Amino acid sequence: MHLTTLDLLIILAYGLITVGIGIWISKHAASSIRHYFLGGNRIPWYMLSLSNASGMFDISGTMWMVYLLFVYGLKSIWIPWLWPVFNQIFLMVYLSIWLRRSGVMTGAEWITFRFGTGRGAQLAHLIVVLFAIFNVIGFLAYGFIGIGKFAATFLPWKLADDPVTNIHLYGLIITALTTIYVVKGGMFSVVATEVLQFFIMTIGCVAVGIIAMQRISPEMVAAVVPDGWFDPFFGWKLELDWSRLMPAAQERIAADGWELFSVFFMMMLFKGVLQAMAGPAPNYDMQRVLSARTPREAAKMSGFVNLVLLVPRYMLVTGLTVLALVFFSDELNVMGSNVDFELVLPFALREFVPSGLTGLLIAALLAAFMSTYAATVNAAPAYIVNDIYKRYINPHASEKTYVWMSYLTSLLVVVIGTAVGLFVYSLNDIIQWIVAALYGGYTASNLLKWHWWRFNSYGYFWGMVAGMIAAMVVPALMPFVATIYTFPVILGISLIGCIAGSLFTPPDDEEVLKNFYLKVRPWGFWKPIHEKLAAEFPELEANRNFKRDMLNVAVGIVWQTALTAAGIYLVLERTTELLICAGLIVACSIFLKYNWYDRMEDYPRDLEQYAAKSARPVGISAG
Fold first, then answer.
1. Residues with Cβ < 8 Å from 255, sequence gap 6 or more?
2. Is 454 buried (19+), middle (13-18) or exposed (0-12) by CB count in 10 A?
3. Taking the alpha carbons of 386, 97, 546, 77 in that order, is the dihedral positive or negative?
4. What is the pLDDT of residues 25-62, one digit of tens each?
């Protein structure tokens, strides 16, 4: 591809500015380990939200979404429930508040808050660190694949004759550049650069959407897609027939294993609700919640992500998809069964974006990769340094030593994640393994930890061990089904480990359970602990908001899905559907204003009264 001098200058300027900001801000990060990982709990919620949105706006995920919309049409708005994307709604409604009330630095440190410091808690602590490392390495490999494919297709320089080697070399170069500012600057650097990246990406998204609307009419799209492509609703089967227009697309639907779409949808919903209720995995999303100044700000941060992310992102996804459908379908058909639909995004950009805007869009999509990669890399040393090195190896080191160990750890996980990425080619394969298999092993333990007082540290450990082993073994034993259908098996194995591990060992320290319940105040099966606390303090209130929280979650998911569809219908110029989405967004927003936003609390109302009466510190200050 030919890039003009202006395009190259924009890309170069973006790279220099990003790295420069990261290094300049690093003096704030180096003052302490809490400043490095959480920004000292001083970063405003709206900046954390823009940063989180930028981190979610990854290039690999965007390439995958373009593929989904291309092949599955409007029905693709449901498929990201695989993650599940509506975990942001559960976080917004109540889980961010519960999580931030702990005042801890990492998910592994949260284990001590929930289970104490006994042998079982130490085992639970170690297993969640191990899971976090697996999770980070998986996402780094996923990001490496996406940026390599994008850069090799879009940038003009041929680094190797072999296409796969070319992809890997581009991935290595851009990964190295990103690593420089992340390792040096920690959370301050990540947030500052991601806010910049968010605005660059938003400009690029809107520009692509406008280009598509100017060049393509709704009739042009309708002529190249099968019946039902514009309809988000479905029957028992998917009922999209690409066999006449593009046989390779029909083959991909069969390979994905989602033809029985109702079964697939029910499995996504079942899996998604359980995973969302388990809370965020120990990655960059959790770090944003823990970085918030207060629990209430953590909830606002999680909610605002949806508002700023979804419409512009889907304007980009839809713009690229319809450009490829109308102008690139013949070339894809020539490729036959060897077509790689994950390359639709870079091909569409290369062919249809005018000179001058190209540099900005390349910078925007490089920003998308760098922001996600940066956030993921930043999450890794928080667990390895804070939860292993500081706790077990060198607990009395200086803050400077911990920060330097964080630099070293970040470099190490980048190298390992990149090495894994060298052996994986398909984004869809690694996405399905992460969201269905690996998270399947995480779900049971992390759901029960919130809601059942008798679930103890040994139950957590054995549930996670059983789940992680099952995540490695079960998909290999069931190669004849899509990975998502292995989720119930992995969940069941993990659940057996949870219950057996808990019931065959003594309960955790009662004082630890009382402190957790008092401060977090979850709903669920906590009656014995509540009664013991109520004996000391009769005014203690139980959390009776389960029904209200679930209603807000349901309305929030409708709100989030309408935002997603609105971005698509805007670019497709389907006015009726867009107005319906706008009406749903307004109605849901008004409902959530009164039933969620106005009722949020930083901490339970009776917490300070209990502390004053019992003379016990409750630790409700920021950080």
1. none
2. middle
3. negative
4. 555 544 554 554 455 567 789 988 887 887 677 666 77
